Automatic annotation (TrEMBL):
Residues 38-218 form the Class II aldolase/adducin N-terminal domain. GO terms for molecular function: actin filament binding. This is Class II aldolase/adducin family protein. PANTHER family: ADDUCIN, PROTEIN HU-LI TAI SHAO. It comes from the Bacteria. Belongs to the aldolase class II family. Residues 1-24 are annotated as: Disordered. It comes from Streptomyces alanosinicus. One of its GO terms (cellular component) is cytoskeleton.
Length: 269
């Protein structure tokens, strides 16, 4: 992907050199809130479609666009495959549901609240117990730069090895959050995967990418010894495929799919 000054004019303002539209703008906080809630419900349905559900486990959050000390998240006990905009809840820093009628998952609160409180630049986080991330974590491995997609996480991932049971204490949440920082992904050994982003779209797209790359890595090692990128190659791939702009736009393809296939998630009543 070229980033030189001689590229076509319509690409001049894009970091990736791709014809990516600008982020949407909103006239009011209410309009912006409706947008992020729709995107959150879509993300949860996408998780369901990919089989990321594991009973009550798994949650995605996004910071409220007006009240930055609050975040929207899926409620306790609602399937990824059934959640709608109407089901979503807004939670404050004390774990109180300030918008919505359902209960918050204690694990969702301690993990997501800690991330949102500690990092103002992060606006979303995604967590689930997927088969591929759990397998990779059980081996104590992070993604190796064996292809362009996995290299997106080069020097931007952390293996969290502490385990004290289900994450339901504030201290556990804070300890996990301490490793987000400049990382895009935290692989929780014996647990699952967390991805974060400056937007909901980034966090969710990164989750899909990381889980897919975990699968490829497990397959490659089962078949032989994969060849990894050199450090300069990995960094070059990371600069392109790890770009936030690209992640946001890649989510738009998923949005188009799920709104076509499962439009009922947009129900607000």
């Amino acid at each position: 992907m070229s980033t030189t000054d001689d590229r076509p004019a319509f690409l001049a303002d894009t970091a990736t050199g791709l014809p990516i539209p600008a982020d949407p703008t909103f006239a009011t906080p209410a309009e912006h809130r409706r947008h992020v809630k729709q995107r959150l419900a879509a993300s949860l349905r996408l998780f369901g479609r990919e089989g990321f559900g594991e009973g009550i486990s798994g949650h995605i959050s996004v910071r409220d666009p007006e009240h930055h000390d609050r975040f929207w998240v899926n409620p306790f006990g609602v399937s990824f495959n059934r959640v709608t905009v109407a089901d979503l809840i807004c939670v404050d820093t004390e774990g109180r549901v300030v918008w919505g009628s359902r209960r918050v998952n204690p694990s969702a609160f301690v993990i997501h609240a800690a991330i949102h409180q500690r990092y103002p630049h992060l606006h979303a986080a995604a967590h689930a117990h997927t088969a591929h991330s759990r397998a990779l974590g059980a081996l104590g491995l992070l993604l190796e730069p064996i292809d362009q997609e996995s290299a997106a996480f080069h020097n931007r991932q952390h293996l969290y090895e502490a385990y004290e049971g289900p994450s339901i204490t504030v201290e556990q949440g804070r300890d996990i959050a301490a490793h987000a920082g400049d990382n895009q992904a935290i692989l929780l050994r014996h647990h699952g995967l967390i991805t974060v982003g400056g937007s909901l779209e980034e966090a969710v797209h990164r989750f899909f990418t990381y889980d897919s790359c975990a699968r490829i890595q497990l397959l490659a090692h089962a078949a032989g010894t994969p060849k990894t990128f050199t450090a300069p190659q990995a960094q070059a791939a990371a600069d392109g495929f790890g770009d936030a702009q690209l992640a946001r736009f890649s989510f738009e393809l998923l949005w188009d799919e799920i709104t076509h296939d499962q439009p009922d998630f947009l129900n607000e009543n």
